[in-house]
Amino acid sequence: MSSLEEAETEETVTCLHLTFYHPGQEEKMMFRCLNLGRREQVRADDTAKFGRDSGACRYSLLDTRVSRVQFSLQFYRKLHTSECGFEIKNLSKKTKLTVNQTELGYLNKIDLPWKSVICFGDYQILAEVQEGEAMDYFETHLHLAEAPILQEKCLPSLQPIPEKDIAPSFFLSQGKSPTEMDENDL
């Protein structure tokens, strides 16, 4: 038997990819304490807290507008399955947290969808869960976005938008050209 055949089966690890954005990130450098670009192991029974207090939070954001403890992520195994997930809880008394436009007040919590956008204040965080099998720990992989994750809503264009070959092909197939009609002519 080869050493490959005797080796234990590797289990995949659940990884939570978090991409952060703030409009003032260049000047204020509020993400400088985050371990960006590298995977980090977190024990399954630990709660991953985000906030400004580096003593209480595993992930510290250097911004006085961020609560001491802003929110937490808890890893868990779903009942009667081997599937794992994350629960997000708002721990800020002053700032509401939104997850995919669901507003969470203080101490409200929900299951984190496999792909979601978390917002509070001017912060936008894209959270993407990569499923795995390991039960003892999960990994986080933090990134920085160069552009806003949520694009601001723009006013609709005032220029007409042409239809895509619906009317011309319909009328050509009938051998007629389009004509205007008054609604009273019907």
Structure commentary:
There is one protein chain. It contains three helices and twelve strands; from the N terminus they run αβαβββββββββββα. With 186 residues, the chain is mainly beta. The protein has a domain at 19-144: Tumour Suppressor Smad4. The strands form two sheets. A seven-stranded mixed β-sheet has the order 2-12-1-11-10-7-8, with no helix packed on it. A hairpin with a 2-residue loop joins strand 7 (97-99) and strand 8. The N and C termini lie far apart (86 Å).
Write the layout of secondary structure elements.
Elements lengths: L2 H4 L8 E7 L3 H4 L10 E5 L3 E5 L7 E2 L10 E7 L6 E7 L6 E3 L2 E3 L4 E3 L3 E6 L2 E8 L6 E8 L21 H8 L13
Radius of gyration: 25 Å
What form results from the Cα inertia axes? globular
**Gross CATH architecture of the domain at 19-144:** Sandwich
H and E string: HEHEEEEEEEEEEEH
- In total, how many beta strands? 12
* Helix/strand/pairing category: mainly beta
Distance between the termini: 86 Å
CATH level-1 class of the domain at 19-144: Mainly Beta
Main sheet: which strands, in order across? 2-12-1-11-10-7-8
Average pLDDT reading: 84
Largest sheet: 7 strands, mixed
- Poorly predicted sequence stretches spanning 5 or more consecutive residues: 153-159
Percent range for β-strand residues: 25-35%
Instruction: Give me the number of helical elements.
Output: 3
Tell me roughly what share of residues is in helical segments: under 10%
Q: What's the multimeric state?
A: single chain
As for the CATH topology of the domain at 19-144, it is Tumour Suppressor Smad4
Protein name: TRAF-interacting protein with FHA domain-containing protein A
Pfam family, one: FHA
Family: Belongs to the TIFA family.
Domain FHA: 49-121
